[in-house]
Design goal:
By secondary structure, the chain is α+β, with helices and mostly antiparallel strands. It has four domains: 108 residues, no CATH class; 95 residues, PAS domain (Beta-Lactamase, 2-Layer Sandwich); 85 residues; 137 residues, Heat Shock Protein 90, CATH 3.30.565.10. Helices cover 58% and strands 17% of the residues. The chain is built from 13 helices and ten strands. The longest helix is centred in the middle third of the chain and has 56 residues.
Length: 450
């Protein structure tokens, strides 16, 4: 419309100029024709001869009267023409402003971020803008028909049933049903347009899409519940581990320390070297057993191979011990040797992820083969643990279990991504990617107790 306006104006000006030239030409031709006819027919002489008997009525003065009347008519006509020109210019200016206002309204309506529409009282769409077409999915499906009443359900009945005493009906959150069954949540305002009989004729609607905000809040709420449950589970596991450590120290280390103390107290009272050597040998055996028990406790709290040899050998030792406990499961490994030079925080997280995955496999999977893949790639550290077991199909191994939630929390603490894929009777695949650019910002701290 903006591009056609100058062209339309130029065309109108040209038509007006052509009309003026045509009128001048007609007037000139009329005067010339009258002059030539007067020369040929000599109407003035005939008129004088006719008017001579009527000289007492001053009929011969009529031509001057007609001339004066013509002059007056021309003056009135010119003044009227000026008034018409002013009126036409005023109308054109008004039409121009109305056209500009229409363009501004159309731009505001079509290009606004809120979804605007007009519907009848039955919810049938009369007109809508592009934002509404995108929100409702009409633009994707290429459709022009949409029924607001079907999308809103019972809410529409409350909006369109009776005239509202207030000018607007505001809803901070409305959940609509899209034809493609997609999630659609909006903040809405409705305005009822009444007829002369005070009945609802049309309903104007203004939608602001808050679907992403709604889903984000829902996800945050779910994560909050999971984190609270995970924190409770972590505290319970910590207490259980402390109890287990206390039992081991009391039952194993404590008893042998008591035996060592009693033997050491007995030795000074023995004069026979042979008998004393028996006590000393027994003290040495007790000390050796205590040393083995302490190493076992330390290894459970933190793998010694991780500090002594690096991540790869620690994983190999973990898998070796796990295979001894689960001889019916075959385990293959593809480990990148360059992963031995990873930061400590990343090494601990990877080790615990593989440890937890192997524990879940031995408890729930009933697998025959496990594959562990660890690779140092350009985008970061890539880890995959895959088994051929039953997959996730029971409440004992759901994606929201504490073990899997803990694995995900460890990876996300390193700004990584955690993906779990499973199908019934097709095993479970756990994939994690940890970017190196966030490794120094990691806030994960190993809990050496629980």
């Amino acid at each position: 419309m903006h591009e056609n306006s100058p062209l339309m104006k130029n065309t109108s000006d040209n038509n007006r100029k052509n009309s003026q030239r045509r009128d001048l030409l007609i007037a000139f031709c009329t005067v010339a024709l009258t002059y030539f006819l007067s020369i040929i027919l000599d109407p003035a002489e005939h008129f004088m001869e006719w008017a001579e008997p009527l000289e007492h009525g001053q009929i011969d003065e009529l031509p001057f009267v007609f001339l004066a009347a013509a002059i007056v008519a021309i003056w009135f006509s010119s003044r009227r023409m000026r008034e018409l020109s002013i009126e036409i210019a005023t109308r054109r200016e008004a039409e121009k402003k109305a056209h500009e206002s229409l363009i501004r309204f159309q731009t505001l309506f079509e290009e606004g971020l809120s979804g605007n529409f007009i519907a009848d009282r039955y919810g049938n769409l009369v007109i809508c803008n592009q934002a509404f077409r995108i929100m409702s999915g009409m633009a994707v499906r290429g459709e022009d028909q949409f029924n607001i009443a079907s999308a809103l359900g019972s809410e529409w009945q409350a909006i369109a049933r009776d005239p509202s005493p207030s000018a607007y009906l505001d809803f901070p959150e409305l959940i609509l049903e899209r034809p493609d069954k997609g999630v659609w949540v909006v903040m809405a305002r409705f305005r009822q347009v009444l007829s002369e009989t005070a009945e609802i004729q049309e309903i104007h609607g203004y939608f602001t899409d808050i679907t992403e905000q709604y889903l984000a809040e829902k996800e945050l709420s779910q994560l909050f519940v999971e984190n609270r449950a995970l924190a409770g589970h972590a505290m319970q596991a910590q207490e259980e581990e402390r109890c287990r450590l206390a039992r081991e120290i009391h039952d194993d280390v404590g008893q042998y320390l008591t035996a060592i103390r009693l033997d050491a107290a007995t030795i000074p009272n023995i004069d026979d070297r042979v008998s004393a050597s028996v006590y000393l040998e027994r003290i040495a055996k007790h000390a050796e057993y205590i040393q083995i028990a302490i190493k076992r406790i330390i290894r459970r709290l933190r793998p010694a191979a991780l500090d002594a040899h690096g991540l790869v050998e620690a994983i190999q030792q973990l898998v070796h011990d796990w295979c001894k406990q689960n001889p019916e499961i075959d385990c293959s490994m593809n480990l990148d040797e360059s992963c031995n030079r990873l930061p400590e925080t990343i090494s601990i997280v990877i080790f615990r992820i593989i440890q937890e995955a192997l524990t879940n496999i031995s408890r729930h999977a009933q697998a025959h083969h496990v594959d562990i893949y660890l690779k140092n790639k350009d985008q970061g550290l890539f880890v995959r643990i895959k088994d051929d077991g039953l997959g996730i199909q029971s409440s004992s191994a759901t994606p929201n279990s504490f073990g899997l939630t803990g694995m995900r929390e460890r990876i996300e603490s390193l700004h990584g991504s955690f993906v779990l894929a499973s199908r019934p009777n097709a095993g479970v695949t756990i994939t994690a990617i940890i970017p190196f650019n966030h490794s120094r910002e990691c806030k994960y701290v190993e809990n050496t107790v629980g």
